[in-house]
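DM from R.C. (forwarded with permission)

"hey, sorry to bug you on a friday — could you get me a structure for this? deadline for the figure draft is monday and I only need the backbone to look sensible"
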Amino acid sequence: MEDLDPALLELARSARTVTVLTGAGMSAESGVPTFRDPGTGLWARWSPEQLATPGAWEADPELVWSWYLWRARQLRGLRPNAGHLALARWADRARVQVVTQNVDDLHERAGSEVLAHLHGSLFAFRCSACGTPFPDQLVPGLGLDLPADPEEPARERPPACPACGGPVRPSVVWFGELLPEGAMERGAEAVADADLVLVVGTSGLVQPAASLPLIAAGRGVPVVEVNPEDTALTPHADWAVRARSAEALPRLLPGARPAGADS
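My reply, with the result:
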């Protein structure tokens, strides 16, 4: 990547409150397949769109539960990348608020606190009937030491809710569902109150998340896009850093050594 603008580096150094909006590109560098990547083995014949709907759950909850459990197990075998780690270190120097569209827990495992998971989490569960939260440690096979199981997982029955007996589902947002309560409001407040907003690895197309950087821009908050390619957000960003997050974020971190500096 090219050298970063000194004005951007100075802003990153001086910002006391930094809000970071992350999308699929952030996790892809850890090996997380994007939502629309083709499945493997048993899942090659299913598109995510077919399984990420309330209708799919009603038709075959065992199939949907098994697919999400398989995906969660895949992610447990992956690790945070240099971008995740840089954001966690940044929080030692400033107030860093992470708002993510990703359903993984890589930010948390890197050491960051996540203000809002806009699309829910693969590692949170609730009853599909009464909404009672279900402790993740009671779900078989989600230990941190579990190897990834990408090929032919067996179909598994969803656990039963201890409160009402209904089937437990992952707390992710399916097509046609509302975002988690308060998540969008927390995100909007975070971008409006920031000294600097970073938008990392998103297409700028998925609503309502795509509106958050525009809130910042409308209030005069500097917006920095970190993405290898132009996106729908690019015309509204004050800086566009054309690099992947694992490369760009460590260099934006206050106190980072300039590229090419002696070690």
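R.C.: lifesaver. The beta strands are 17-22, 95-100, 114-117, 120-127, 133-134, 168-172, 196-200, 223-226, 239-241.
me: no worries. The domain at 1-31+79-119+179-256 is CATH 3.40.50.1220 (Rossmann fold).
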